[in-house]
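User: I'm putting together notes for a lab meeting next week and I want to include a structural view of one of the chains we've been expressing. I don't have a solved structure, so I'd like a prediction I can at least talk through. The sequence is below, exactly as it appears in our construct file.
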Amino acid sequence: MNFLKKWLFRLFLFIVCIAAFLAASDNSAEVTLVFLDAESPRWPISWWILSGFVIGVFFGLLLTAVSTTKMKLEVRKVKKQVSKSHGALDNLRAADELPVRQSES
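Assistant: Thanks for the context. Below is the predicted structure for the 105-residue chain, given as structure tokens.
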């Protein structure tokens, strides 16, 4: 199943790249973007589309790296807790195997 997911994802990425290339080659008019009072340099629409795509991919990878790092740290913490629990359980099992002295009354 993972093999199928991997290849479907690769096919999806390939289709997105082809669509971005076709959109870039079809849009060659130069435009200036205006944000409040700031104006951008005149670039073809294709450059704006591709730069938006690249920035989106970069931020997606950045967010994925942050969440993956958090999850790895959490897994490491839980593994340490499990290791401590196993050690304590082994100590309790070893203590149960020792003969217990009964007080003579």
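A couple of points you could mention at the meeting. The chain has a mean pLDDT of 84. The beta strands are 30-31, 34-35, 38-39, 43-44.

User: Perfect, that's what I needed.
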